[in-house]
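Supplementary Methods S3. Input chains for the assembly prediction are listed below.
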Amino acid sequence: MIIHQVLFIVFGIICVAGAVNLLVQRHPINSALSLVVVMASLALIYLLLGAEFVAAIQVIVYAGAIMVLFVFVIMLLNAGAEERTRGSQVALFVGVPGMIALAATVGWLLVHSGGQLGGVTISSSSFGETHQIARLLFKDFLLPFEITSVLILIAIMGAVVLGKREN
Amino acid sequence: MIPLSWYLILSAVLFSLGVLGFLLKRNIITIFMSIELMLNAVNLSFVAFANYWNTHVPPGQTSIIPLSGQVFVFFVMVVAAAEAAVGLAIIIAVFRTRETLNVDRVNLLKL
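Predicted structure tokens for the full assembly:
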């Protein structure tokens, strides 16, 4: 079980490092590539939780489809390095301390009393296998699943209308 | 065995970094990527709790379906994909009229 914890710590550190790099980089293409690193290591953490299907669609949908869309738009718009402008300072002086205070509170609560929650292991049963998720998706969650198809249709039409040139 | 709180702390750290990116970055595409980072952080806690409920369902709580956390992640990914398509189309439309990606220069709804 020690290998489980080592893998979690390694990929957790890679995850956080990628997220920090996303903030530090000034060019959007570097940020996009570090977001790919975050998503790939999250997929491995999902595998540690026994969620095979979620790990697969994390790589295919997020790291594949969505990030390709991002990189495509960055290249299409020929986005250069971020400009340093001084707009509203409210986000910097109110938002950042507020966020740090919130994160510190949540972190302290989890460190202080998170031990009562117990632990998570890879179960030897067939938990998280694709056929179980398929059964849930097409039985208990059939109506939401069908509604998402309408949502995707609306998103496609919205993207086409917004992307069309006005003339 | 990994404590559940480790996963939740990792999720909280990623979410906080996403909020910080949303507040501090000035490039509209990077701000959009910070939103994706926040969605991923929430997905991580969904998957962690799905695994947790598989082994820790309290007695008498038969209405909890342990795998529903992973199904929720599926729906979050669908919504994120739709959001990315529409959001990037909006970014392209904004760039076409303003010729900039800096959010400080985009302060009017209509030119």
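Chain A touches chain B through 87 residues (CB under 8 Å). The helical segments of chain A are 2-24, 28-48, 52-76, 90-113, 130-139, 142-163.
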